[in-house]
Amino acid sequence: MSATVVTRFAPSPTGYLHIGGARTALFNWLYARAKGGKMLLRIEDTDRARSTEGAILAILDGLRWLELDWDEEPVYQLSRATRHREVAEQLLAEGKAYRCYASAEELAAMRERARAEGRSPGYDGAWRERDESEAPEGITPVIRFRAPHEGDTVIEDRVQGRVVFPNKNLDDLVILRSDGTPTYNLSVVVDDHDMGITHIIRGDDHLTNATRQTQIYKALGWETPIFAHVPLIHGPDGAKLSKRHGALGVEAYRSMGYLPVALRNYLVRLGWSHGDDEIMSTEDMVRWFDLEAIGRSAARFDFAKLENLNGHYLRATPDAEIMQRLKALVLELPNGGELAAKIGPEGWSKLERALPGLKDRAKTLVEILDNAEYLFAKR
RNA sequence: GCCCCCUUCGUCUAAUGGUCAGGACGUCAGGUUUUCAACCUGAAAACAGGGGUUCGAUCCCCCUAGGGGGCACCA
Questions:
Q1: What's the CA A183/C1' B3 distance, rounded, in angstroms?
Q2: Residue A254 and residue A272: Cα distance in Å, rounded?
Q3: If you count DSSP H runs as helices and E runs as strands, how many of each does chain A have, helices first?
Q4: DSSP character for A183?
Q5: What does the pLDDT look like over A220-251, one tens digit per residue?
């Protein structure tokens, strides 16, 4: 029996769907589709303070615009907190986790000391063996995972290859906070396991998390999924993508007049390639995509290439679809209402007639609109 | 500071223990076009540096440099 591939895209709703997240979603989607599997969606909303309803909507909206569909209902991580706590209690009962009564001040001092001694600024494991009868008054304990301190944790990553982490560099992480809520690394492991995820494809900023998660999987006696940590996207200057580069939400790209096909084609070629193929249909991508061909170095975001691709797809897209997209786009432009009024039904039909010529000249939908300005001019 | 990852034209990348190191975007020069765009043709443009291994290294190993990621009761 061949195991069905189940991937997942698991954004935290603390902002829009940014371009890196979009690529991660695309890779998960492609892999699932390529293997005839499923892609699930999980909203990691356990950070109550930063998660917003608006962000959830923006992310779902962004995925829909990119035409990346998911299977089944999205899972909201927050709703699974009880289950997460149960697993933490189970680990505690089995001696694979322990209560830690260290205060915030103690932890700060500990970090200070570790840094001074040139070690990783992690928890020193003081409560690992200490008896709870020594617990100080007035401290509600957290539950820490009893991580192995000897040997190595090895990740057999489909993109990064074999990555070895010495266990001595990994401390006993908190899995359940003093308020009884689970932390990220526990929730992720429990959810990925319960959701039957077979392949975890995500940004390589999670590579070290993969080691802690692997340790938790082992402690629980669960099979670890296959990991694939893809490099992050950088800005044109090689620095981490930030707002002044392209770390905009996908809706910003929509507003700039890019087509979803073009963005998908651009994104898939960032870090992944198939010989000399540059322009490829979604069917081609699904047919050709595979994890091993993903490169290991970060790629810089290049608007010029995106524009070129967009121009290509603009020319290849039927006029009717372009018209539809233009009409939708107008409404979300800064001066949208004004412009829509100015164009009017008459303007739209003029534009439609002029479209074949306009399409060839433009790189984006916005440019088509700009170049069509003369059609709407009041005499 | 400690741990992990990365390094081929400006950018995205391909390939190979022996190649003129290939393609795409961008750039430049022509062609076509009333103009612009599109399109066509051509050009410049890369193996980070240093040691090895080898008859021979861009490719294998080590070191250095540079870049990135991680080291929370964030995800």
A1: 22
A2: 23
A3: 14, 12
A4: P
A5: 999 999 999 999 999 877 777 766 555 588 99
d(CA A256, CA A364): 7
Note the pLDDT tens digit of each residue in A68-95: 999 999 999 999 999 999 999 999 999 9
Distances from the Cα of A199 to the Cα of A40, A216, A261, A339, angstroms: 11, 17, 25, 47
For residue A175, what are its two tokens?
């899995």
Nearest residue (CA) to C1' of B24: A278
> pTM, whole model, 2 decimals?
0.94
Which pLDDT tens digit goes with each residue over A26-78?
Answer: 999 999 999 999 999 999 998 888 899 999 999 999 999 999 999 999 999 99
Q: What's the whole-number mean pLDDT along residues A257-280?
A: 95
Residues A155-176: tens digit of each pLDDT = 999 999 999 999 988 889 999 9
Phi, psi dihedrals of residue A21, rounded to the nearest 5°: -65, -35
For A198-254, give the secondary structure using H, E and C. CEEEEEHHHHHHHHHHHHHHHHHCCCCCEEEEECCEECCCCCECCCCCCCCEHHHHH
Rounded-to-integer distance, Cα A266 and Cα A278, Å: 9
Closest CA to A35 of A58, A2, A74: A2
Between the CA of residue A207 and those of A60, A154, A164, A201, A216, what are the distances in Å? 26, 11, 11, 11, 15
- Closest nucleotide to A177 by C1' from CA: B73
Which nucleotide's C1' sits nearest to the alpha carbon of A14?
Answer: B75
Residues A256 and A364 sit within 8 Å (Cβ to Cβ): yes
